[in-house]
Specification:
Helix content: 40-55%
Structural class: alpha/beta
Strand content: 15-25%
C-alpha cells in the first residue's frame, strides 16, 4: 500500500500545474506554519493550513480576534509565504461530527468534479470548513466557472469562496504540455 500511495502521489504531482519545487515548498510552509502557531496558541485553537502556490489559507476556529491576528502574523513570517488568506472564525472549536461532515462535502465536490469533463480535478484544491467550500488552483476562467458551479450545486455546501489564480488558456497549455513532455512540472521563478 505504501508503494501504491507513493506512486499515486508522484503521478498526481506530475499533473499539478505548480512546479515540483513549489509543491514541496507548499508542504513545507504548511508544516512550519502549523508548528509555529501551535507553539504559540497550543490546543486552544483548531486551525487548518492549506498552502497553494505559496498562498496560505487559514481555516478553523480560534478563541479571540487577537488569536486570529496572531495566527496570521506568525504564518506571514514563515519563509516563502506570498500571502495569508485568513478565514479563521472566532468561536468554539468545531466538533468531530462537524469536521467529518466537512470532509464528506469535500469528497463529494471532488467526486462530482470527475464527472464534469470540463476541467482536470487535479488542478483544483478543495477545502471545506463549516460547510464553506474554498477553491484554490491555477486555472483558466472556464475551468474556474465549471469548478465553482460544481461546488455550488453540491449538497451541504453553504457558500463557495473562489481563491483561484486565473491563468490564460495559453499558459495552461504551456504548463500542461511541459508536464507531459518532462514527466514533471517545469520550475517557476519565484515572484
Amino acid at each position: 500500500p505504501a508503494v501504491v500511495a507513493g506512486a499515486t502521489a508522484g503521478a498526481l504531482a506530475t499533473m499539478d500545474r505548480r512546479s515540483l519545487g513549489t509543491q514541496t515548498e507548499d508542504e513545507t510552509i504548511e508544516w512550519k506554519a502549523s508548528a509555529r502557531v501551535s507553539e504559540k496558541l497550543g490546543d486552544t485553537a483548531h486551525i487548518n493550513y492549506t498552502s497553494y502556490d505559496r498562498k496560505v489559507l487559514l481555516t478553523g476556529e480560534v478563541n479571540s480576534a487577537e488569536d486570529k491576528a496572531e495566527a496570521e502574523r506568525i504564518v506571514s513570517l514563515v519563509p516563502n509565504v506570498a500571502a495569508v488568506l485568513n478565514e479563521l472564525a472566532v468561536g468554539p472549536v468545531s466538533s468531530f461530527s462537524d469536521r467529518s461532515n466537512d470532509s464528506f462535502i469535500t469528497s463529494k465536490v471532488k467526486s462530482r468534479s470527475l464527472d464534469t469533463g470540463k476541467f482536470n480535478p487535479v488542478h483544483i484544491k478543495v477545502v471545506t470548513e463549516a460547510g464553506v467550500v474554498y477553491l484554490m488552483g491555477l486555472v483558466t476562467q472556464p475551468e474556474a466557472d465549471a469548478a465553482i458551479k460544481v461546488a455550488r450545486t453540491t449538497g451541504g455546501v453553504k457558500k463557495v469562496v473562489n481563491l483561484f489564480d486565473i491563468i490564460t488558456p495559453a499558459k495552461a497549455r504551456e504548463l500542461d504540455i511541459a508536464q507531459s513532455k518532462n514527466g514533471q512540472p517545469t520550475e517557476e521563478k519565484k515572484p
